[in-house]
Amino acid sequence: xxxxxxxxRIWGWYFFDWASQPYNTLLLTFIFGPYFTGTLSGxxxxxxxxxxxxxxxxxAYWGWGLAVAGIFIAVLAPILGAIADNxxxxxxxxxxxxLMYFVGSYALWWTAPQEFSVIWALFFFGIGLIGMEFAxxxxxxxxxxxxxDPAELGRISGSGWAxxxxxxxxxxxxxxxxxxxxxxxxxxxxxxxxFGLDPATKADTRVVGPLAAIWFxxxxxxxxxxxxxxxxxGTAPFLIGQSLRDLGRTLKGLPRHPSxxxxxxxxxxxxxxxxxxxxxxGVYALxxxxxxxxxxxxxxxxxxxxxxxxxWISGRVDRRVGPMPVIIVCVLMLTFVSLLIVTITxxxxxxxxxxxxxxxxxxxxxxxxxxxGAAGGALQASSRNMMTRQANPERMTEAFGLYALSxxxxxxxxxxxxxxxxxxxxxxxLGVSPVVGLFIIGLxxxxxxxxxxxxxx
Length: 457
Known about the structure:
single chain; 457 residues; mainly alpha; Growth Hormone, Chain: A; two-stranded antiparallel sheet; 18 helices
């Protein structure tokens, strides 16, 4: 096997973030998520449901679908991580989950409003989401192998996340420039939707699924060219029984490593809250502020550019002071902006009435999106680096499986709380309020986390 230089391995690793980011940017947050809720609420209104109730119900369906996918990921993530650690084989799993990503996202093309199926739309979206999340677990576990100096890992993680955000921005620009029609019938760049896609059937929006799939397939090439596995000598390909026993020992041993346990608990809540903001941000703007898909896409570009810039900056801060201060500042910023978002309506901000027709709510929401992009990206990059400090170096993939478990064990919680609150209040705006409490719980649990962890004395 040809030797791959450290620089190529790092850049190949970066390209996973670039390739996979459109699932978050295009599908989860800014294009398909709002399309799903807008299409479903439109169908419900046509059936006689009141407009506000229909929008809340559509948001609830989206939340329940994400909750089911999150439970599935939570159950399998640490098991697969343990298997990968025992065999040293990560790439075969990444190939499998990449295929799921491709199939799940491409199939979203078949979600036209005229024959819209909630079950099938959520099923294929869930397949792609599960593939993306599981592939992320295995690629994250390569991080400690990318540099001999642990202090450099924060910079590498931040740069990788920033690179991914740039990919997200570019994919959004491509979508808005070439495919997504505005009310005029042309794209934001004044062009007819590529390939003659008909806005009447929402083909100009549904193409986001195939676009994300093809983008992923093309830009995963550098990753697969430069990623390398180290097979553990004398092991069978899967070792399921042994892996489950090892995972059981790790879970039983968590109380002996209080910093790791506290960090898993803290990140469980604040990452869940962040995912709630990402997942429902575009949905909220479309339903509460009445934005179009194009306006939501522009909002996404602003948030992603902000995220790219601050990920790069935070990676340098992380290298200098460590990930803990970055995490604390970012969680505080996100808590504040969550409180702000809940108070934004077309008629008021922070419960203060504004003039009718004012664009202040739109401007404020754009600013909030930029803050979410900046703090959210930096938070995820430094959290990934913090995990390398908290984990047992000999069980890194299993640790990232536990990290995924902690992120997904309650990943159903934010969508479920938002879905439940949306249903009982009949309000999309109040529906997102539970994320504030989740951020606060995560911040409190950080008090028991050692900056260098239990394994690095």
